[in-house]
Each structure stands twice: as C-alpha cells, then as structure tokens.
Amino acid sequence: MRFIKLIPFLALMAFVAFSCSNDFDLTAEPMDIPIVYGILQVEEETHYIRVERAFLDNEIGPLVLAQDPSNLYYEDAIVSITNLENGTTYPLERVNGEDAGITREPGVFATSPNILYKIAGAEMALEGGERLQLTINRGDDLAPATAETIALPKMSITRPISPIINTWNDQVKQKVGWKMNSEEAVIFDLEVVFNYRELLNNQPPVDKQITWRPVANRIKTREEASEIALTEEIAGSAFYEFIFEELKNDPQAIRVQNGIDFRVFAGGTEIRDFFTISLANAGITGSQDPPVFSNIEPNGRGIFSSKSVAELLGVTLQNSARDSLVRGRFTKTLGFQ
C-alpha cells in the first residue's frame, strides 16, 4: 500500500471506532475527537497537514455529522510544528486545498471546502533527524492535541549500480538496494515503473507506463533494526509475467521499451505501527473491538509521521535482459522490438 492511501482510512476510522465501539456511552456528553493526517517529507516544497474533528453526538449519527463542514473542521484552531532540537516553533497557515488544486474525493465526508494547514518547506528547512512536535490548539477550552515524530532524511538508490541491466531472467534476479541514512526508516514499498512506446494500427506512437509493486509494506526485522541500507532481489520471471498480464496481446502492436524507473518509499515508526496494528486485526482472529493506532494525544485519531522517497530513473534492458523481454516465454507475443 502506498502511504498516501492512509488518508481516507484515517479520516474515517474515528467515526467507525467510536460509533461501533461497545464502550461508547450513548448517554454521555458529545465528544470532540481530533483527527490528524500529516506525513512530512524533507524534500517537499510545501508541507500539508490535515486537521479535522469527529464531533460525536448521541442524538445525531456520525455519517450525518460528516456531511456538515462546520462539524468536520475547527473554526479557530492554531496549528504549529516545533523543532524540539532547537525549540523553534513554526505556525502553519489555514488554507482551502482547493485553491492549490487539492480536492477531496467524494464519499462520506463533505468535500468542500477542503481545509488544510500548510507551511513552506524552505521555512522549516528540514534535513532529517529532527524530532518534531505537532501542536493543535483547538480553542473552546479544549486541551491541545499533540504528536511527535522524527523527520527522515533523503534516501538514495544504490542498486542497480549501472543505468543498464544486462541480465534479468528466470535464473538471475535483479538486486535493488537503497540507503536510508537513518535507523528511523522502518517500512518500505518498492515500485518498478516500466515505460514503453506503443505503435498500434499505424497510429502515431504513444508513450505509456505500467507500475509494479513487488515489495509492499516491507518491515525491518529485528536483526535489521540498526541497518541504514537494505537490498531486495526481484525475480525476472515475476517482472516479465507482470508485463504480460498488464499489456494487451495485439499482433498489430509494435512496442519499444522506454526505460525503467525504480522508486523506494520509506516510512517512519508511526507508519509501521499503524500497519502492524491494522494487519493484526484484519483477519478472522481480530478482536471484535480492535485497537486503532494513533499517535495523536490526548484521545485523538490519526497519524503524524515522516516518509522519504528515492528514485532511479531511465534504466534500460540490454543484451540478455532485452532478449528476455523480446523473446521470453511471457512477453514474446507482445510485439517488443
């Protein structure tokens, strides 16, 4: 799962957790629960934090409340991030994400306005390793909501070493390595983007791409806890089979590879803990009232964490690897030249 897909789930889980809980007292006073989604990346030009609330009422259902923006957002919240290493506090600006082209997908929640809190990346100038505290002053005599994380530094992909892959087949796996530069990076996705140009029925050529995720939610083992570099071996047969399954077998098609892009996504400990708890309660053995991960205190829902992304672009298949694409058992009928 790409980490960005946490957004709709985290936004929904506070309503689900409380409205389905056996511990929710229907005679209690209405509850104000802060919901936060903030995943920082040091390279980003602008950091966005989503801050919402689940205002649970014993007389109005949560799905009804979710359609009213006045129930969804804090009117006068003050949101800031403090660098605990030097004590500097950075206020975030309340904005409508729609003004920056950031829209909310239709669903349970009101889609407009799309309130976010932002700060320019250059203002905080994160390098990685900083311990950061998010603070949300909600007003109305409510206790501030807080969360902490450690910013992940930039990563780099160390393998493939060359921009040319000469051998990648059933017998020889391709090693993909990356250096995280931090022990705090603990969960990973690996994407392989296959770019190609397609000429079909004498029409102008079209550049296309397909994305494969051979490694998803890969969590560091206990033995790897202190490692700052990892390597995965990717089977050639799985790669070429993926291409075969994704592309239409058309005898009129002429296709040419146009480079392979490798992308590694790393997440901090909070993202790992979120997935660990989610997986533990996903099966039939999960508890009826499963715990929900959150590092938002007190009594909040959501996640404040950090991620890092590394890319290696434009790697090409040559020699034996190219032969495996053109003449291999999976892809020989797809018209690759």
Structure in words:
It is built from seven helices and 16 strands. The protein is an alpha+beta fold and 337 residues long. It has two domains: 3-152 and 269-305, no CATH class; 156-266 and 311-327. It is elongated, with a radius of gyration of 23 Å. It starts with 5 loop residues before the first helix and ends in a 10-residue tail after the last helix. The relative contact order is 0.17.
Overall body shape:
elongated
User: Could you give the distance between the termini?
Assistant: 33 Å
Order of helices and strands: HEEHHEEEEHEEEEEEEEHEHEH
Structural class: alpha+beta
Biggest sheet layout: 9 strands, mixed
Unreliable parts: 3-28
Count of all domains: 2
Helical fraction equals 10-25%
Give the rounded overall mean pLDDT.
Answer: 88
Counted by DSSP, the helix tally is 7
**Rg for CA atoms:** 23 Å
- Amount of beta strand: 35-45%
